[in-house]
Amino acid sequence: MKRLMYSGTGLLVLLLAFLAFNMATSVLLPGARLDLTEKKLFTISDGTRQILRDLEEPITLNFFFSDDASRDMVILRNYARRVEELLREYERVADGKLRLQIIDPEPFSEAEDRAAEFGLQAVPLGQTGERLYFGLAGTNNLAEREVIPFFALEQEGLLEYELSRLVHSLAQESKPQIGMISGLPLDGGMDPMTGQGQPPWVAFEQIRQQFSIQPLEHDMDQVPEEVEVLLLVHPKGLSESALFAVDQFVLRGGRLLAYIDPVAEMDQSQEAMMDGMADGRASGLGPLLAAWGVDYNLEQVVVDEGLGMSVSRGRERPPARHIGWLELEAGNLDPDDSITAPLSLMTTGTAGALIPQEGAATRFTPLMSSSPNSTLVGSDRFAQLEDPETLLRGFQPDDQVYHFAARIQGPVSTAYPDGLEGLQPERTEADNINVVVVADTDLLADRLWVQVQDFFGQRIPQPWADNGGFLVNALDNLSGSDALISVRSRGDFSRPFTVVEELQRDAERRFRASEQRLQQQLAETERRLAELQQGQDPTQMTDLTVEQEQAIQGFIDEKLEIRRQLRDVRFRLNADIERLGNWLKIINIALVPALLTLGVLGWWLIGRLRRKG
């Protein structure tokens, strides 16, 4: 048998057996997969399975891919193969309710005309005149359409969510009605600073795909009956009648998602620009939060040294830690609530604190929270903030955990028991409300969670945090649809280097005092040197006495020495990180190969000893 295995015939037999095994598994087990990725990126989620199994009417998906035009694009063809395999898996799970068509839109063909009719994005390839189609168009029995114009490689991590969202939208008889009032330019508009038009925020574009958005007025006196969920974003201009309408909407069973803020940095309204103070950018919900058992001070911001974000200060200066802009990891998010359970990273910008009142009848469920290494500071510190490092001076944590977002449920009474002039409350209490409040609006802005690239006129968002996912999850949950929540946030968001960040924070704590002392000495030395040189005529510098020359040279030497010490302090800030990087290089380049080599040699030696024995 051993001679047969080492002979040419034996190798041929092994090859044929291998081919037969692969053919048998492809025929008998066509859907078998082994997904070893951490987030199971190649396995469809339970939410997708639920969407596909709940289909009541058939849906047709037309997958357009230019096979011949992409013949030299290996990476793109591999991605197209993955898209096709995932679509075939959708078709299999849907059990006849989903029909997949694979279409190659060759030039000047009816298929190409059909792709153009659906509005798919054709990408020109060089100077050959060829165009590449790589998109999806879905239709239902009502002739409604949903389209993914082009599958960009940068969005591969969100592939399943985009496909499931498309199918879910086609399966709905009508989109959930969202009533919205916003004090921020979510839908784009004119930038008052530059005078140029701005595109819609990515977060708004995402919810517009899935929900029917109905704009409401800031001075309304009633929320329309057809509105299922009310979305308030930075509602600083709400009239008393509008607050009364929100109160009555919640009491009659309407669901509310409110984003408020002590310092809305993205508020570019004329009032905020003219005011120049932090309170000109603050928003709240008047007496409503207190009626729901929540305290909120719109003049206080949470700062957290443990979660502070590293921000750039320009080319000439090293990055600084902004303890008012925070990165919240999974440990700072509620793992049990369906809104935050799938999320892994949230960012906030100058957020406020939501504090449950003692003895309140409502149930306060924190969704996003700070670390104990935090405290509250006045919002006025952010009015003219130029250097975020100044927030670290005098920082003293109070060992309290503050909450940036919460779900409020339970029995409540109206905040307007006597009504308003001309408005009487139809309801004065409710057995159970369902309200989600977020004490930050800046987290919706693109700059805090997503990078947008232009791809032949198509805006391609690349999220590095889950801020947009939180918004859509919350609206999904409040509107009664949880199917898409488990699909979202399975993509390739940036994963923070927690060990490196902790080393950086420890180094900052050790050397910050030294750096501040040296900066003060440098400033004092430069001041004294300027005083000594002030009034000196440059043409008369040779007339200085020996003592004056020695004093000036002494100050110059002292200035150079202080600058050298500053460079040394800043170098030592990253010494531990550099040491960690060197150890990782040694482990990857030398230690792991050495261990593998020793393992193979040991295995060979043991086998040889056994054969001799």
Automatic annotation (TrEMBL):
Record-annotated membrane-spanning stretches: 583-606
Coiled-coil parts of chain: 504-535
Presence of the UniProt keyword Ribonucleoprotein in the record: no
InterPro entries: ABC_transp_unknown, DUF7088
Top-level taxon in the UniProt lineage: Bacteria
Ranges for domain ABC-type uncharacterised transport system: 175-474
Keywords: Coiled coil, Membrane, Transmembrane, Transmembrane helix
Keyword Transmembrane: yes
Annotated ranges, domain DUF7088: 38-138
Protein name, entry field: ABC-type uncharacterized transport system involved in gliding motility, auxiliary component
